[in-house]
């Protein structure tokens, strides 16, 4: 099961909860986790995992030195056990340090191997469909090893089925979920109640299309992330619709009233509108409160202090708007003004809250003149980020007031 780099240990913990495996039964590698599981467990992981990108079944693994070796390895797989010659398929290929000149050519050889095998067994060659394939096969090459996987997910799992309205830079749902886990709000060590289970409020003051808040609200209502979508395994031969329906019914039976309050706000009313519509489709419009407003002005949304989880505007992709933004357009700023004002606002008005800020700016806490108490490395696609934990301790209010009064 692949995941964003930095998320592997959390994924292992999550998979242990979804299946009956223990973390020691798993192989945790950079960018993913491997385990032996049943077909039923593969369906359960697709249904319940918030952190993995896909659930892949390894069907071949061996040494290679050229494309012919990969062809032979692919031809030996009993593909006809998994799908029929009438099903279209697609090959995706990734590589790390592969000596091959052309990955496209290697993918073509795997395609040929699968089609040739079907032709030999059934007299029919299945079609390739690169846009809407019924079956997806993944090939991963390292320097000497070729591994072939059958994809049970279909569309990647960050697509939960509720997003139609996106902002300019939406966070992947899987990464939003990883932020919630890293903060201890959505999952904790066994026996330790999570922040959500303790009813702790969670708030994203730059919520955009609402990804973090909607993930949080679904978690608060125990809504399984895969209930709104279809999966690749539903098209495979082993699929048993009765078992699947039973799993879905079990998941629906777990849904509950929200265990914790969830909030989101954004300076752009268009984004707030997107977020509300997304929440409606995600089945959580009653479990999350969205508002418009500038993060530099909005007061804490609940009396009880909680967590702020935020993926703030950054640099060229998204500029800070609102009162700080107006100034930045004139000054061609790097966001520094916005973040120092945000720090003052938080210190004054968010005493007792803890902020978890995901940013590619590795020096952000210093620029906010705040000290982080944790920094968790996480990759947003190819972009290296940090999730900084910043605690707004009670008492900082007075210090800030004095600080402001002297004008320094
Ligand atoms: C990186 S995006 C967040 C994306 C969001 N996590 C999502 O998944 O859609 C940053 C957001 O900050 C908002 N923003 C910019 N300046 C702001 C301000 N002063 N107050 C509140 N939100 C602001 C932008 O409108 C944008 O939606």
Could you characterize the architecture of this molecule?
- The strands form 3 sheets. The chain has a 7-stranded mixed β-sheet with strand order 9-8-7-10-11-13-12, covered by helices on one side. A 4-stranded mixed β-sheet has the order 3-6-5-4, with helices on one face.
- By secondary structure, the protein is α/β, with parallel strands linked by helices.
- It has helices at 8-18, 39-48, 67-75, 103-122, 173-182, 211-220, 241-253, 269-281, 322-331, 336-349, 364-367, 396-405, and strands at 27-29, 32-34, 56-63, 89-95, 135-141, 145-151, 202-204, 262-266, 288-292, 307-310, 354-359, 374-380, 383-391.
- It folds into 2 domains: 8-151, VC0802-like (2-Layer Sandwich); 173-223 and 257-405, Rossmann fold, CATH 3.40.50.150.
- Residues 167, 169-171, 205-206, 208-209, 211-212, 266-268, 271, 294-296, 311-313, 318, 320-322, 324-325 line the site of S-adenosylmethionine.
- S-adenosylmethionine binds next to helix 6 and helix 9.
